[in-house]
Amino acid sequence: MFNKIFRTGLVTEEPATDAEIEQLAPELKRMVDKQFRGSLAIRMVDAGSCNGCELEIHALNNPYYAIERYGVHFVASPRHADALLVTGPVSRHMEAALIATYEAMAKPCYVIASGDCACNGGEFGVNYASCGAVENVLPVDLKIPGCPPSPAQLIRGLLILMGQREPVQR
Questions:
Q1: Among candidates 68, 71, 66, 82, which has minimal Cα distance to 34?
Q2: Dihedral sign, Cα of residue 61, residue 18, residue 26, residue 32
Q3: What is the mean pLDDT of residues 95-124?
Q4: Which residues is 144 bridged to in the sheet?
Q5: What per-residue confidence (pLDDT) applies to 71?
Q6: Does the pLDDT value for residue 89 go beyond 90?
Q7: What is the pLDDT of residues 18-62, one digit of tens each?
């Protein structure tokens, strides 16, 4: 088996480069270093989404995008987070959990609505099972539209957020 491996050699291709990510990544690292001393911690909450947005967010952590090398990482505890990233329309069952997560975070903090459902309620809107957009439950600092937003759009959103102002004291 080893002989076959050595005879065959590498058969995988070099990963394609995403030109937009190549441009955005150094700026993201510079902004994270400047505003968060090198480490931006994000707590992500799925408030009732279809998981499309989560797939794109998880892609940020894969070896292709590897967002942690730029100082951005996802944390399990809201007490360790600088930003709250919310996906999906806020379901009635997740409303209390989302508010509790936000209240557990150190202030000031950012609140980011990711995806069309989180930004405006999407096709669900406000009804008996859904509170609609995240801003109906929490104050939102940034909306990243898209169904789902791509990893490049997510990085661009973080840059816009950090470039526009410091987090609001609440």
A1: 71
A2: negative
A3: 94
A4: 114
A5: 92
A6: yes
A7: 778 888 888 889 999 988 888 999 999 999 999 999 999 999 988
Give CA separation, 124 vs 47, 49, 112, in Å.
13, 10, 19
Sign of CA dihedral 48, 50, 51, 57: negative
| C-alpha closest to that of 45 among 14, 89, 7, 11 | 89
pLDDT at 153 over 50: yes
As given in the structure block, the two tokens for residue 34 are 């400047």
Q: What 3 state SS string does the chain have?
A: CHHHHHHHCCCCCCCCCCHHHHHHHHHHHHHHHHHHCCCEEEEEEECCCCCHHHHHHHHCCCCCCCHHHHCEEECCCHHHCCEEEEECCEEHHHHHHHHHHHHHCCCCCEEEEECHHHHHCCCCCCECCEEECHHHCCCCCEEECCCCCCHHHHHHHHHHHHHHCCCCCC
Count of Cβ atoms closer than 10 Å to residue 64 Cβ: 13
Residue 68 has pLDDT above 70, yes or no: yes
